[in-house]
Amino acid sequence: MFHAENTRSLETFTAELNLFKTKVAPNPVESFTKHGSGVLKLGRHHYPAYEPEKYKQWAVQTATRFDFGNGIATWEAELFAADGFYANMFWIERDYRAPEFNELQQALDAAKKADVVVLIHPCNFHSSAIVSDNFKQLAELAQAQDVAWKVY
Fold first, then answer.
1. Where exactly are the structural domains of the chain?
2. Pairing outcome for strands 118-119 and 86-91
3. 106: nearest Cα among 140, 142, 81, 60
4. Predicted confidence (pLDDT) at residue 54 exceeds the cutoff of 90
5. pLDDT confidence band for 57 (50 / 70 / 90)
């Protein structure tokens, strides 16, 4: 999966995708996500605007899939897929959780009903004890409650 940063235009996105395919990816790239959720500029080439309908069109044009959006769920039903697309996710990083839907158990309760997306940035897992502890706690709770995992 490719995590796009430069999404100013189809041209910048395609250039970044092709660079990733030729220089980094050992396997074919089948899908992508968008870095950032529309507010903060998070890198030198990062385009902060979040425009999921545009990315769905780009997926068709580049023969990839755009399966996961970056929305912040405010209740469990917002975690479920609509037409195969997950618009929202449950973020391990607390700063990206909605105040009314921010507990690990809430995400697990939703996952007992249908697949949900849980996001963790690997660099934050290593740099933040809070993030790594939350992720480990979620994994332990999922195992104890027999909630299966899929890793993408």
1. 1-66, 68-152
2. parallel
3. 142
4. yes
5. very high
